[in-house]
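Translate sequence into structure tokens.
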Amino acid sequence: MSHIGILGTGRVATNLAGELSAAGHHITLGSRSPQDTAACTTGLAPSPRIAFADHRTTARTTDIVINATPGASSLDRLTDLRTELAGKILIDVSNATRDAADGLPGDLCYPGSSLAEKLQAALPDTHVVKTLNTMLFTVMTAPETLATPPTAYLSGNDEDAKKTVTGVLGDLGWQQEQIEDLGDISTARATEAMILIVPHILRRHGFKPFAVSLAR
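Result follows.
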């Protein structure tokens, strides 16, 4: 099992931490302040496989790192960790958007590109893999709860890194046939653009589990 670092302390981060630790991985949740660390323990079942640290320590001491920070500020936050992330796999599950008046995603921060591409350019010694950004966060760790099998898309330049991430997805309950490898990191601009359909779904149906999936 791997030692996985998760940058972020919100619902996405704690949801992933709980499921990955239950699968046997050792998890370090990285926060920017002690207050964030205290807050992220709320609702998270205690586990000897979950530890807490600051972002820099988390990136430096783990094998695989998941970016679950707010997408609009992820590039600045992670560029500052360039040394610590060198040689690591970075799984990016965030979407970089500007909020509409109601607080839901209204526009992309990087039209014509993507957060994943920006991260890969800023972190040339890191293997960035984009995935799990096209669904409500609860589906990330429970794909079997949807009536229609969902799709987890993969984008990344390094084939070995994508194979490793596929294994992590398997530990979260994703079946091989539900994982769609789109190609290199430039394909992430397609899946990140899918976020623009999400606010319309949420306004009509509320925060019910869903995924933007491929039907054959």
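Note: Strands lie at 3-7, 26-31, 50-54, 64-67, 89-92, 97-99, 105-108, 127-130, 152-156, 179-183.
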